[in-house]
Automatic annotation (TrEMBL):
PANTHER family assigned: CHROMOSOME-PARTITIONING PROTEIN PARB-RELATED
Pfam families, A to Z: ParB_N, SoPB_HTH
Record family assignment: Belongs to the ParB family.
Protein name: ParB-like N-terminal domain-containing protein
SUPFAM superfamilies noted in UniProt: KorB DNA-binding domain-like, ParB/Sulfiredoxin
Organism listed in the record: Tateyamaria omphalii
C-alpha cells in the first residue's frame, strides 16, 4: 500500500476528528474493515475470533443485511497499513470481514473516538466486563497487563479509575497470576473462573502445600484427559488432603521436591500408605522406591 494512499486516509481521519470541533466525536461511519487492526490491549483472545466462535453474529448480520451496533475505533495517524484501531468490536469486525470475503456488500460501522491507551483500556473494560463470551481468565490477564502499563503497579489507583473495589480487582489479578502449570491443567484457559483461583490460591501461596498442588496439576496435564474445570479444581485441592500436620510417627516420601508425597503411618504391626489419587505413575513409583529404601535399605 503506497504512502500516498496512507496519507490520504490519515487526512480523512483528521477531518473526522474536526467535524464537531472537539476531541471526542461520536460520529458513526461505514468504513472498509480491512483498514482496521485490533488494539493489542483488547481482552478478547485470538482463539475466540474464529468463524465458528462468531457464527451466531455472522448469521445475524447476514440476515439483517447490516451491522446495527457500531464498533469503537480510534485513528492511527502514524500507521501506513491501517487507518483505525479497534478498541471494542473485534467480533463484529471478524464477522464483517467474513461476509465481505463471501461477497456480501457490507461496511464496518464504527464510532470514531480520540483515546489515549489508558482511556482505551477503560472504554474496552466497560463494554466487555459483563460479556459472557470473554472469559474471566482473558479479562484478568488484560487487567494484569494494564496494572503495570498504565497504573505503575498501584492497584488502588487502577481500581479507582475503573470504579471497582480494590478487593474485586485483587481477586482478578490473583487469577491472572496463576502459575502456568495450573493453567495447563485445564482443558482451555477460558474455562478458568475467578472463583477457581480463590479456591486454590491460598494453597499455592503456602510453600508447604504449593508443591502438592503443582504436582497434581502436572499429573492432570500428563494424563491428557480434558476435565471439566470444577473437577480440575477438586483434584488440585485433594492433592493436599494428606495434611501437612502429620500424625505422630508418620513419614513422607517423594520422588522429588516438586512431587506430592506418599505418607507412611505405622500402627503396631501394620503400615498404612496414603497418597493423592492425582499422583502420576512415575511420581508414585519414585516415592515407593524411596519408601522401600528407607524401610529395607
Amino acid at each position: 500500500m503506497s504512502r500516498t494512499s496512507a496519507t490520504a486516509r490519515r487526512s480523512i481521519c483528521a477531518r473526522f476528528l474536526q467535524c464537531k470541533g472537539h476531541d471526542m466525536p461520536n460520529d458513526f461511519q461505514l468504513i472498509d474493515p480491512a483498514l482496521c487492526r485490533l488494539w493489542p490491549g483488547n481482552p478478547r483472545a485470538a482463539r475466540t475470533l474464529t468463524d465458528d466462535a462468531c457464527a451466531d453474529l455472522i448469521d445475524s448480520l447476514r440476515t439483517q443485511g447490516r451491522q446495527e451496533l457500531p464498533a469503537i475505533v480510534r485513528p492511527l495517524p502514524q500507521d501506513d497499513t491501517h487507518s483505525y484501531e479497534i478498541i471494542c468490536g473485534a467480533r463484529r469486525h471478524h464477522a464483517v470481514m467474513h461476509l465481505r470475503a463471501a461477497g456480501m456488500d457490507i461496511g464496518f460501522l464504527v464510532e470514531l473516538r480520540a483515546l489515549s491507551d489508558e482511556e482505551a483500556f477503560r472504554v474496552a473494560d466497560v463494554e466487555n466486563r459483563t460479556r459472557a463470551d470473554i472469559s474471566d481468565y482473558d479479562r484478568a490477564k488484560s487487567y494484569a497487563a494494564a496494572l503495570d502499563t498504565y497504573y505503575d503497579g498501584v492497584q488502588a489507583h487502577m481500581a479507582a479509575r475503573m470504579q471497582v473495589s480494590t478487593a474485586w480487582l485483587s481477586r482478578h489479578l490473583q487469577l491472572a497470576r496463576l502459575p502456568q502449570e495450573i493453567v495447563a491443567a485445564f482443558a482451555d484457559p477460558g474455562d478458568i473462573r475467578e472463583r477457581h483461583a480463590r479456591q486454590i490460591g491460598h494453597l499455592l501461596a503456602d510453600p508447604e502445600t504449593a508443591p502438592d498442588v503443582l504436582a497434581a496439576a502436572a499429573a492432570i496435564t500428563a494424563d491428557g484427559t480434558a476435565l471439566p474445570a470444577p473437577q480440575v479444581v477438586s483434584r488440585l485441592r485433594a492433592a493436599v488432603c494428606t495434611a501437612q500436620r502429620l500424625p505422630h510417627g508418620a513419614l513422607q516420601f517423594r520422588r522429588s521436591m516438586h512431587d506430592a508425597p506418599i505418607t507412611m503411618q505405622r500402627r503396631g504391626k501394620e503400615v498404612t500408605l496414603r497418597f493423592s489419587p492425582t499422583l502420576g505413575e512415575k511420581a508414585l513409583r519414585g516415592a515407593f522406591e524411596r519408601f522401600i529404601a528407607h524401610t529395607y535399605g
